[in-house]
Amino acid sequence: MADPDAAMWTTIGAGSIGTALGVFGTIIVAMINRQPPMAVLVDARIRTLIEGYEKHVNDLQQEIQKLEAKVNALTKALEEAKASRGIGI
Question: What letter would DSSP give residue 23?
């Protein structure tokens, strides 16, 4: 005759394995379902960073243009001063 304890442990073991597989499957499904919102969040953060860098680059380009205009004005003023004193270039 079969040992009743062995049948009990077999049932408990099979139930435990089934439960573990169910939990693992639930976790995988939850992770898969969570991906799109996570991707949207990451995309939004990357977009924000890119927009910030674009604004910073634009600000720097404007500052460079202002500095170039000042250099040109100072160079012209220096040439005029040299020409009026007769120093020559």
Answer: H
Residues composing the chain: 89
**What SS3 state is found at 3?**
coil
Token duo for residue 28: 């995988």
Place of tokens 């927009």: 51
**The pair of three-digit structure tokens given for residue 25, joined into one six-digit string:** 């499957």
Whether the full predicted model's pTM is greater than 0.90, yes or no, is no
Helix intervals (H) in 1-89: 4-85
Contact status, residue 25 vs residue 17, Cβ threshold 8 Å: no
Distance CA 37, CA 43 (A): 10
Q: What is the pLDDT of residues 37-69, one digit of tens each?
A: 767 777 888 889 899 999 999 999 999 999 999
Distance (Å, whole) CA 4 – CA 43? 58
